[in-house]
Amino acid sequence: MDCKNCGAPLMGEYCHQCGQRTITERFTLRQIMRDLVSMITNVDLGFWYTMRALFVRPANVIESYLSGATRRYYNPFRYYFIIIAVAAIVQLSLGLFDLQQAEIRETLNPNMSEEQLKQQLAIMEYVKKFLNIIPLFILPFIALAFKWMFRKRKWNFAEHLISTTFIYGQTAILGLIPLFVFYFLPQYIGWGFPISLLLSALYFTYTYQKVFQMSVGSAFIRSLFAIIIGFILMILFMGLSGIIIGIIYAVAFR
């Protein structure tokens, strides 16, 4: 029997040439339902298996994935995207994003004029639309900083990016806990960023002290500095980009 998709000779349940599953029976409603359940279950199992493994043995997950054993784990970027999407929904539905921005305004510019307030509120409404995408921008800068701080294994940038994405996905799950705490204790919303920074550093330490075989103290200091450097690099990049765009706009439309 030949593959109905590419015509290659079949040697099992799946075509070795194109991956098409061998189908010998007619389509039935029962078969469609079975395939649908199987598809959903497989996705869920892969996601939940990866989540559990990253909590129990994160070093093994990252080392296995980077060695090429990718099939058993969920794609790190898809994994991270799903989690930050859930976190964004929680943050917006509980009103924590608006509360946090109000706290920042009160701290940095308590005497803001009415016109400035309207402009900032308009910007924040626009930012809300991309709240599940914005966290993706920090990943390359964090990965670059970790490449500088953890050079022992000589990972390249892509390998650090994969590892960083896995770990940040996991810390985003842990970050859901303080979100619910802030909902009931909004007066502590200003602690959001320091807590997020600490959770990330602790989880990187938990993982990297095994991956890089170093002491907990050394792993924590390096992780904390790498995260801070990553944020600084992102801010510098955004500032420089803003200046360049401003110059181009001024030259083009003066």
SSE map:
Blueprint: H1 29-56, H2 58-67, H3 76-93, H4 96-108, H5 114-128, H6 138-149, H7 157-174, H8 176-184, H9 192-211, H10 216-253
Helix pairs in contact: 1-2, 2-9, 3-7, 6-7, 6-10, 7-9, 9-10
Please, what is the average pLDDT?
83
Span between termini:
71 Å
Strand content: under 5%
Largest sheet: none
User: How many separate structural domains?
Assistant: 1
Query: Which residues sit in consecutive blocks of at least 5 with pLDDT less than 50?
Result: none
Instruction: Write the element-wise H/E pattern from the N-terminal end onward.
Output: HHHHHHHHHH
Number of E-state strands: 0
The outline comes out as: globular
Structural class: mainly alpha
- Helix tally equals 10
Q: How would you describe the oligomerization state of the chains in this entry?
A: single chain
Instruction: Report the radius of gyration as a whole number of Å.
Output: 23 Å
Q: Helical residue percent?
A: over 70%
Please describe what this structure looks like.
There is one protein chain. The protein is mainly α and 254 residues long. It has one domain. Helices cover 71% and strands 0% of the residues. It has ten helices and no strands. α2 (58-67) packs across α9 (192-211), α3 (76-93) runs parallel beside α7 and α6 crosses α10 (216-253). The model has no long low-confidence stretch (mean pLDDT 83).
